[in-house]
Amino acid sequence: MPELKIRGRALMFAAVTAGTVLASTLNGCSEEPTAANAPIAALPLTNLSVRDTTIVATGSSTYKQFVATNGSVNLIGRSGNYTAMALIQFVPGYFPARDTAVVFGADLTLRFKTWFGDSTGQLSFNVYRVSLPWDETTLTWDAVQAAGFYEQYVTRGSYSAGAGPDTQSVTISLDTAMVRQWLATATSTTNTKYGIVLVPTSGCSIIRGFNENGFDSTAYFPTLRIIAGNPSGTFVDTASYTNSYDTWVGNRENLTTNPQLIYIQSGVEYRSTLSFDVSFIPRGAVINSASLLLTSDPATTLMNRFTTDSSFQLATTLSPSDRTNLDLTSAVTGVRRGGTLLTYSADMTRPVQIWNRMPNYGVTLMPSTYEDRVSFRLLTFFNEKAPPSLRPTLKLKYSVVR
Amino acid sequence: MNPSIRLRRVGAILIIFCGIQGATAGSGGSTYSLLGLGDIRYTPGARSEGMGYAGLALLSSQYIDGMSPATWSRLDRVRLEGSAFYEGFNSTDGITSRYLARMDFHGALLAIPASRASGIVVVAGFTPFSEVNYDTYTSSVVPSQNVDPITGAHDSLGYLIHQTGTGGITRGQLGFSWAPSQQISFGATFNYLFGTINHVAAQIAQTSGSTGGTFTDKTTLSGVNFTAGMVITGLDRISDVLRPFSLGFMITTRANLHTSLETTYEFAPPPTGYTVSDTSAQRLGRVAIPFSYGIGLGYQPGERWTVAADFNAQPWAEADFNGSSPIGIGNSYRLGIGAEHAGSTELTARSFDRFAYRLGFTYSATYFALNGQQINEWGITGGVALPLAGESHLNVAAIYGGRGTTAGNLVKDKILRLTVSLHISDVLPWFVQTEEE
Predict the structure, then answer these.
(1) Do A79 and A61 sit in the same domain of this protein?
(2) Is the pLDDT of residue B300 over 50?
(3) What local confidence, expressed as pLDDT, does residue B281 receive?
(4) Cα separation, A20 vs A12, whole angstroms
(5) Dihedral (C-alpha) A201, A203, A206, A210: value to the nearest 10 degrees?
(6) For A329-381, how does the pLDDT look when each residue is reduced to its tens digit (9 = 90+)?
(7) Between chains, do B10 and A12 touch, taking CB under 8 Å as contact?
(8) CA distance A210 to B329
(9) Which of A251, A283, A318 is the last residue of a domain?
(10) What is the mean pLDDT of residues B234-251?
(11) Is A353 domain-assigned?
């Protein structure tokens, strides 16, 4: 009987081992299915048909959508219908608490690095105290214009001079009473530490850009110098502060005057929507490619020295009413392709894919983020009301199941 | 070592082995499985598979035939059988060929004798009914696929379509046998058919700047049918010459499967984007699987020799897929003949004498019918049963064969199938009836 037991175990072991080895070997023989080794057969497999078509835009509009700027350059001034205001808040935490200190002098130094508009124009602006808290990452033009945002009737400083070189530094004297309050421990509605806003005067005819905190050398940051001491004047100290929050806000009035154009205005900003009717594409079709072609209007397009490229951003509009509801995660860049009238193109594969399954609210064309933050660049394109050769077109290639 | 512990170890090893194989395999099978409901599985068990899929007329005290409930009446103890299935296809269109294989679970059946005197045995379990498993490519450069029949225009985009199919239908069955006498047995099962079949077509654009997409048709199916069978062994009443013969019959009713088809579209993203997906509404439908029947003949010339022959047929031309006849489907039948040399039950027998050996041949007209051609299949089968301990044994069945043709732009497959089943009996002592019972 022990022999039988041993024999049984041996059989069992042999069977399992043989089975495992055999199956592993056979499985290992399996090849990777590829297009090269696939047998071609007249079997009822899925078949596709690729279709090509080019369609013209069916609708467009331009609207103003104020955005936060907070770029590497702050703009201040006025040129034509463009207005820029700059805001600076020196971080209160860096000021010493000196309730009894007397401020003998205070000034603000800015280093210009660029300009926009008439280079022979006059830059003039006033300084006002900001009365409400603000955030450089969210502040927009309309918030600054709201009543009570800054003390419009109490000038805390002013500047007026002709446009100088880009590396020019200018110093603006500030109201010592206001700066003294920045050193005080207590605050109130009239004694705030929310900084200052630079507002161009009516005589201003140029927009200038100055370095902001956080970009380039620290020596170019906006700098606040305070000369203060004790009331008797026996002890005087001079201190400089560069830690600040700063941004700018801009506006442009009366932009959309030509009904045959759509506008992409940086800085303010103006955005445009563009619609194409792709309802003829069966739901479930694969959008292989969709290329938008736009023709710019050189007579109204306004390029400037703040920007080195000429692109714009395109995103699918996801709501008929909420203009901020955009498919920004998949925004693409439209780029200049050349041509006499300058043709721009953008990949619209994803928007058309989305329209194939969801309501079609068109696409939104807007300035690319960089331009938005540093310039007033304006791109204009002919819309569907323009002569046929200038209208926006969408070149489509899509596949449907046959 | 206690036999039950030993068998549990064997079982565990097999389960792990099958799991690993199943996970690493899955590269695809025959492209024909895209037709109809896929490759229809005929799963009588490893014993029958080794005998050319014959066995409708064979009563057995040791094996559970998943296709013929009447054959269960001689089962005398609780038995559990689980199977793993390896299938490899060497497919060719006459120019290119490749070998794709995978391993999968092949079903499990549990038999519980309720009354040995009346041959009442209850059987429950799962077996595959059909399997879809293909992985192939088509391309835009095939003129017949990409020329508009009206305009004659070609595609303006170069692309491949990666076409894959997975899933299948499983049969859950619950049935019983009954033998009112030693000469005749009856059996019936209730079958619940259910499963999911996925057909995926992924367009891969070959042109720079273009993107592709993926279509996935997911169909869930469920429905019921019934199987009834009969085995007659008392032919000696007609003539003593017929004593070693037995006859078996089986019929399965038509099944109406409720289907739900949902198509998912996934569009490949532009270079910097995310995938856009879409899902169609569910489309409800109905698939009618025609009835099937089988006739078997058994012959037992000696104590250890058994010969069997079966004929099965199913009029698939009567199938109804949402009100129409499916493309590429026709009537099917299967012929099988095989023999078994049972292992010795003598304790002193030599190892190889204790094995059971099987050999068989099968020929079938599959239900695939394309371009006016029936896709026929043939196979040489063999098998062996290795006793493990007590009434438990390991069955291995192998089938090598071929099907199809390269004529008419079709595909010819060389097929290798292996079934490994573990048949466990005496590790379930709580079901074993004692002499007192």
Answers:
(1) no
(2) yes
(3) 83
(4) 12
(5) -30
(6) 666 666 666 555 678 888 898 899 889 888 999 999 998 877 677 888 888 99
(7) yes
(8) 78
(9) A251
(10) 90
(11) yes
Name which of A4, A33, A350 is nearest B135 (Cβ-Cβ). Answer: A33
Which residues in chain B (196-215) have CB-CB distances under 8 A to chain A? 199, 201, 203, 205, 207, 209-213, 215
Last residue of a domain, one of A223, A251, A279: A251
Indicate the number of domains in chain A. 2
pLDDT value for B188: 97
Q: Find all residues with CB under 8 Å of B380, minimum gap 6, and list them.
A: B360, B361, B399, B400, B401
β-partners of residue B404 are: B412
Q: Which residues pair with B283 in a beta bridge?
A: B261
pLDDT value of residue B74? 93
> Under an 8 A CB cutoff, do B408 and A42 touch?
yes
**B7 — pLDDT class (breaks 50, 70, 90):** very low
Average pLDDT over chain B, rounded to an integer: 86
Spell out the alpha helix ranges (H) of B78-226.
Answer: 143-146
The answer to whether residues A137 and A283 belong to one domain is no
Residue B66 has pLDDT above 50, yes or no: yes
pTM of the complete model: 0.79
Count CA atoms closer than 13 A to B225's CA, side-chain side: 22
The position carrying tokens 């209730």 is: B190
A3: which DSSP letter?
Answer: H
Q: Tokens standing for B433? A: 């009836």
Q: Is the pLDDT of residue B280 over 70?
A: yes
Residues A356 and A389 in one domain: yes
Q: Does A183 touch chain B (CB under 8 A)?
A: no
Contact between B359 and B338 under an 8 Å Cβ cutoff? The reply is yes
State whether A275 and A346 are in the same domain: yes
Bridge partners of B385, per DSSP, are B356, B395
How many angstroms separate the Cα of A305 from the Cα of each of A155, A207, B301?
A: 31, 12, 103
| 3-state DSSP assignment of residue B50 | helix
Query: Which of B35, B278, B351 is opposite residue A7, by nearest beta carbon?
Result: B351
Domain-located, residue A284 = yes
For residues A234 and A348, membership in a common domain is answered with no
Q: CB under 8 Å to A38, separation ≥6 — which residues? A: B96, B98, B136, B137, B138
DSSP for B85-114?
Answer: EEEEEEEE-SS-EEEEEEEEEEEEEEEEEE
Q: Token pair of B147, please?
A: 């020329």
Chain B from 301 to 340: CB within 8 A of any A CB:
327-328
Give pLDDT, residue B25.
43
State which H helix or E strand residue A91 sits in: none
Domains observed in chain B: 3-143+154-389+401-431 (2.40.160.60)
Is A94 in the same domain as A218?
yes
- Element containing residue A373 per DSSP (H, E): helix A369-374
| A45 lies in some domain | no
User: pLDDT by residue (tens digit) across B144-185?
Assistant: 445 555 555 556 788 899 999 999 999 999 999 999 998 999
Supply the range of the domain harboring residue A85.
73-251
3-state SS, residue A376: coil
Q: Are residues A223 and A77 in the same domain?
A: yes
Contact of A260 with chain B, judged by CB distance below 8 Å, is answered with no
The reply to whether A154 and A291 lie within a common domain is no
Q: Which residues of chain A have pLDDT under 70?
A: 1-28, 303-310, 329-341, 371
Decide if pLDDT at B297 tops 50.
Answer: yes
Q: Before A269, cis peptide (omega within 30)?
A: yes
Coil, helix or strand at residue A337 = strand
Q: Which of A3, A25, A26 to mutate to test the interface with B (most CBs of B within 10 A)?
A: A26
What's the confidence (pLDDT) of residue B18?
Answer: 46
- Digit-coded pLDDT (tens) for B378-408: 999 999 999 887 778 899 999 999 999 998 8
A78 lies in some domain: yes
